[in-house]
Design a protein that fits this description.
CATH superfamily of the largest domain: Aldolase class I
Strand content: 5-15%
CATH class of the largest domain: Alpha Beta
Structural class: alpha/beta
Number of strands: 9
Helix content: 40-55%
Shape: globular
Distance between the termini: 80 Å
CATH architecture of the largest domain: Alpha-Beta Barrel
Low-confidence stretches: 12-21
Number of helices: 16
């Protein structure tokens, strides 16, 4: 009986944590999440997506080891504005004790609305450190990591993000989901690709739907949501409790507004006029420069983000070439002026 006492106490702690920390944004709506994306979902971009209608935000993934060392760069990832709430801090790593301690530290430092565990990142440098989707091949370790974080972070809720499996031959998402539910994880985001697929091919929403039907916790579907019609279809045809948008939000942050309008009214609002899109992009750059404190480095870091914005714009290929060299707001203003002038001439 003595051997069972710690396990019973652990189970009780998890149960009490769940009772006191239900995720309220699932109780009366179908939430839209901004997916955590390294190098993309910084404080500036998260704030812009919040303005466009994103319901729940998550930081870029943060190394548990960096938190334990109080690494200055890592600490920057934890910064957020109160207006971003509800917001989760995403952690990655593979050592249960280290992740548990890092979770406790983050909870005490910044009081996030929830903590999220990254079990889905396919990037090789993360997987090589046994982080991200590497744990899809070691479910006993994943279970220990999740349980350690749930216990250490209480009463702060803990969620997780997974992929459907390591490869098409090793799809284990429903098993993974049940294991994580048993540890006290309170919601699960499922990206509909395997680790081996990276970001190629099509997301498998049949597997996402199967996961949502296999557990009692909310499941958030992720993968290939590029329009309001995509979002409505996945809401209608699957059992997911919410959606997570990544690349669709990178190119068109106003997609959150479009989805909400369509779900509420059955009508999709027209995309912002080209001038409004450019105003949004320029504001993103101005805010990033202010946050960085230097114009040239800020714009260098935004080049890939600016290229993503060209999706659907006239002369997108030319714009991408120009953005690959942009170094100042003055250059950006020239690009904007030329684009708008060409657009006026075509009308």
């Amino acid at each position: 009986m003595k051997e069972k006492a710690p396990l019973l106490l652990s189970t009780l702690n998890i149960f009490l944590s769940q009772l006191s920390s239900m995720l309220p944004w699932f109780q009366d709506r179908f939430p839209l999440y901004l997916a955590p994306m390294a190098g993309v979902t910084d404080k500036v971009f998260r704030g812009l997506c919040k303005e466009q209608g994103a319901d729940v935000l998550v930081t870029e993934f943060v190394s548990a080891e960096g938190i334990l060392r109080k690494n200055a760069r890592t600490m920057e990832y934890l910064d957020f504005d109160p207006a971003e709430r509800p917001l989760g801090v995403q952690l990655f790593g593979a050592d249960p004790d280290h992740l548990g301690e890092a979770a406790r530290m983050v909870r005490d430092w910044v009081q996030p609305d929830f903590l999220d565990l990254n079990f889905g990142c396919p990037v090789n440098k993360v997987v090589a450190r046994n982080g991200g989707s590497a744990l899809l091949k070691d479910l006993p370790l994943m279970e220990r990591v999740a349980r350690a974080v749930v216990e250490a972070a209480a009463p702060c809720p803990v969620t997780a993000k997974i992929r459907i499996g390591w490869s098409r031959q090793e799809i284990n998402a429903t098993t993974t989901a049940r294991i994580l539910e048993g540890t006290g994880i309170q919601a699960l985001a499922v990206h509909g690709r395997t680790k081996d697929m990276g970001y190629s091919g099509e997301a498998d929403w049949n597997v996402i739907d199967a996961v949502a039907r296999s557990v009692r916790i909310p499941v958030i579907g992720n993968g290939d949501i590029q329009s309001a019609y995509d979002a409505a279809r996945r809401k209608r045809e699957t059992a997911v409790a919410g959606l997570m948008l990544g690349r669709g939000a990178m190119s068109s942050p106003w997609i959150f507004h479009e989805i909400k309008c369509y779900l509420a009214t059955g009508k999709v609002p027209p995309p912002p006029p080209l001038a409004d899109q450019w105003a949004f992009i320029r504001r993103h750059c101005v805010l990033a420069i202010a946050a960085r404190g230097a114009e040239r480095p800020a714009l260098h870091s935004l080049r890939a983000r600016l290229m993503a914005y060209t999706h659907g714009m006239p002369h997108a290929k030319i714009l991408r070439g120009q953005f690959a060299k942009v170094e100042s707001l003055a250059q950006l203003d020239e690009i904007i002026a030329t684009s708008l002038a060409e657009s006026d001439n075509q009308e």
